[in-house]
Amino acid sequence: MALVSNPARNVLALQGGGAHGAFTWGALDRLIEDGFTFAAVSGVSSGAMIAAMAVQGFVQNGPVGARKSMRDLWERVSAGDIFGPVNSSLDWMWGWDKTREFGNELAWQGMTNALRMFSPGQLNPFGQNPLEPLLYDLLDTEAVCHPTAPKLFVAATDVESGQAKIFSNAEISVPVLLASCCIPMMFPAVNIGGRHYWDGGYSCNPALTPILAPKPDVLVLIRAQPRTRKGVPNSTADIVHRLHEIAFQAPLDAELSDLPKSVRLHDISADAALASHPLTSKMNTERDFLKRLFEAGREAAAQPVVA
Question: What CA–CA distance (Å, rounded) separates 50 from 71?
Fold first, then answer.
């Protein structure tokens, strides 16, 4: 999909959303298959990992390489069901029900209670992040830093200042990607250069400022969480769930409100694909679930571009 006649004037923004990032993967896979290229990309959390894979893939083997690199990431995630061991070890107090894709009230209420009762050190005493070995195997920092690589921006949240820290190509590393997707209730803050970082979604989701200079013609935004939900939540679990979505959406809305009028926004919505799934499904890395989200992303990206 050639969004503009000059691909160098396309920029890309990828939201974070844990396993929901498979929707983002599907959408970007379809765009690249249709001929889309970009000069710069900004990503957070799972969106940051997808962005890094796409950038290094373009350097390694053009569009084919970008699609392969993204697929390699998600195949590794699904093959190991990387959060499966974490979930299984906490089944007794979280109440997971995988047969319903973590979608019942008991699962979310159990998780909420567990996070209130136990510290990250108790839930994850060794501070292990199952993404770490996977990323060390897959990330090609030389390709990411190559002169021909699209500009890459990854955001994490500085724990002490609360501000977004933006890392660019030469700074991208496994710790940076882990920082961008660090869920503070489950994993210890990531120390980079003496500063500690949490998930970038708390401060930006994703950051737009870095990819808007110089001013592009088209901004493609791929969301990885629903922006709207019908109805008013009543249970504590559903209220907390919705509050998280609103909080993670607010920084992006603020930046979009200041988007220059000359920049055409192509917004790929995740509402239809994700609004029926609860927050807990962000931890569902089972192959069938990820495949469904991937196909939903491809379908969403196939919709006509609206100027």
Answer: 9
pTM of the model: 0.87
The pairing of beta strand 195-199 with beta strand 218-222: unpaired
- Distance of alpha carbon 218 from alpha carbon 307, whole angstroms: 9
How sure is the predictor about 259, in pLDDT bands with cuts at 50, 70 and 90? very high
Q: Which neighbouring-strand residues pair with 43?
A: 14, 154
The segment with the largest mean pLDDT, out of 7-11, 82-86, 120-124, is 7-11
Q: d(Cα 181, Cα 29) in Å, to the nearest integer?
A: 21
CB burial class (10 A; 0-12, 13-18, 19+) of residue 305?
A: middle
Q: Quote the CA–CA distance of 117 and 30 in Å, as a whole number.
A: 43
**Amino acid at site 129:** N
Contact present, 220 and 13 (Cβ < 8 Å): yes
| Alpha carbon distance 67, 14 (integer Å) | 15
Q: If residue 142 lies in a helix (H) or strand (E), which one and from where to where? A: helix 141-144
Parallel, antiparallel or unpaired: strands 151-158 and 40-43: parallel
202-233, pLDDT tens digit by residue? 999 999 999 999 999 999 999 998 888 888 98
Burial 155-189 (b: 16+ CB within 10 A, else e): bbbbbeeeebbbbbbebbbbbbbbbbbbbbebbbb
